Amino acid sequence: MSFGPSTRLKPHDQGRAAVIVLAAGQSRRMGQSDKIRVILNGAPLVAWSIDTFERCSYVDEIFIVTSEENLEYLQNLVYQRAWAKVKEVCLGGPRRQDSAREGLKRAEGCEWVIVHDAARPFVTADMVADGLRTAKLWGAATAAIPVSDTLKQVNAESKVIQTLSRDGLWAIQTPQVFRYDLLWEAHNAVSQDVTDDASLLELNHKDVAVYQGSPLNIKITGPDDLLLAEAIARIYESRDRL
After folding, report:
1. pLDDT tens by residue, 224-233
2. What radius of gyration do the chain's Cα atoms show?
3. End-to-end CA separation in angstroms for the chain
4. CA 6 to CA 190: how far, in whole Å?
5. Nearest CA to 149 among 173, 168, 166?
6. Using CA atoms, how far apart are residues 129 and 8, in angstroms rounded to an integer?
């Protein structure tokens, strides 16, 4: 399930790092299925990323933020899979940032916080290591990949207004890594709705750097994504057997 620990040694001066796994979404685009419970190559989708963080030497603590419907399910899963680093499964809030804040409260005392969407099962230990290294330089860092598709701005009538330059455009992923105090300050300073924690720091006029993510680090939002995820899971399974 984990894609192997990072080959890099954990820096002695890193400080404690906590992961906040966000699993409180409504799964509206999955129809009748709750995406975090969907079985992916023999394990619940939510277990993929947590297994990786559990085995990652850069991670000290894990906090899972979820919905009331999945609270007991995830508490049982922590026991079943013997996740020793998971310190608490807690309820989220109405917005994504509210859920992240609940996890952030519980991670007090850690120097670094890593925020990750449970719907991205293919995070790797190397992504965590690269994120921490970049965040040490800038205070905040997010996994991302350069945009390769042609992008067009479209109006309400579906008419193309203009073609946008791809230069300097990156598609943002998680994990996102922050110095704890910077993220806590941003959560307290910014009240408007955002789609990721990096946006909170941007609105609070703090620097956020990007580091290389992976095209395989997909986000599961609908049934079609599960077909792709099954294919990626088989790729990693075959690599593990080599």
Report:
1. 999 999 999 9
2. 18
3. 15
4. 34
5. 166
6. 8
* Those residues with Cβ within 8 angstroms of residue 137's Cβ, 6 or more apart along the chain or in another chain: 209
Q: What are residue 151's DSSP bridge partners?
A: 164
Q: 107-127 in b/e burial notation, b at 16+ Cβ within 10 A?
A: beebbbbbbbbbbbbbbbbbb
Count of residues for the chain? 242
Pairing of strands 112-117, 170-179: antiparallel
Residue of 172, 171, 181, 175 whose CA lies nearest to 133: 175
Per cent of the chain over pLDDT 70 is 89
Rounded to the nearest 10 degrees, what angle do helices 180-189 and 96-106 cross at? Answer: 140
**7 pLDDT tier (thresholds 50, 70, 90):** very low
Residue 25: predicted pLDDT: 76
At 210, the amino acid letter reads V
Q: Considering the entire predicted model, what is its pTM?
A: 0.90
Find the angle CA(167)-CA(172)-CA(174) to the nearest 5 degrees.
155
129 class by beta-carbon count within 10 Å (0-12 exposed, 13-18 middle, 19+ buried)? buried
Give pLDDT tens digits for 196-225: 999 999 999 999 999 999 999 999 998 899
Distance, CA of 8 to CA of 115 (rounded, Å): 21
CA–CA distance, 74 with 148 (Å, rounded to integer) = 37
Q: Which helix (H) or strand (E) holds 224?
A: helix 223-241
Give me the residue label for tokens 């992961």.
19
On the CB side of 205, CA atoms within 13 Å amount to: 1
Please state, rounded to an integer, the average pLDDT across all residues of the chain.
91
